[in-house]
Amino acid sequence: MRGESSPRRLKREFGADLGFGGAIDLMHVLPNGTPTDVRAQVERRIRDLGTQGGYVPAAVHNLQHDVPVENIVVLYDAARTHTL
Question: Which residue, among 37, 39, 30, has the nearest Cα to 61 in the 3D structure?
Fold first, then answer.
């Protein structure tokens, strides 16, 4: 489907058979985004990948030294408090 985000498409096509983890941008959003940017991306990923379970919010890969601690805290706080 044209214009549909990849995470949403992956969930639709494979979500009944696979669980997903990660998907929070480690190149741009986590190191350079504001806490508001991080929270928005976490909530968007939970909506796209977490419907009916099967998603663990986390960084795409290992957290690096350039990610502000505040953004890491926001990532996990948003994941813990977001409801579908």
Answer: 30
Assigned token pair, 11: 């969930």
Whether 56 is covered by a domain: the verdict is yes
- Residue-wise pLDDT for 25-59, tens only, equals 999 999 999 999 999 999 999 999 998 899 999 99
Q: Could you tell me the residue range of the domain that residue 27 belongs to?
A: 6-81
pTM here is 0.87
For residues 22, 25, 26, 32, the Cα torsion angle rounded to the nearest 10 degrees is -150
- Report the C-alpha gap between 72 and 68 in whole angstroms: 7
Residue 1 lies in a domain: no
Q: Can you tell me the distance from the alpha carbon of 79 to that of 43, in angstroms, rounded to the nearest whole number?
A: 7
Structure tokens at 2: 């044209």
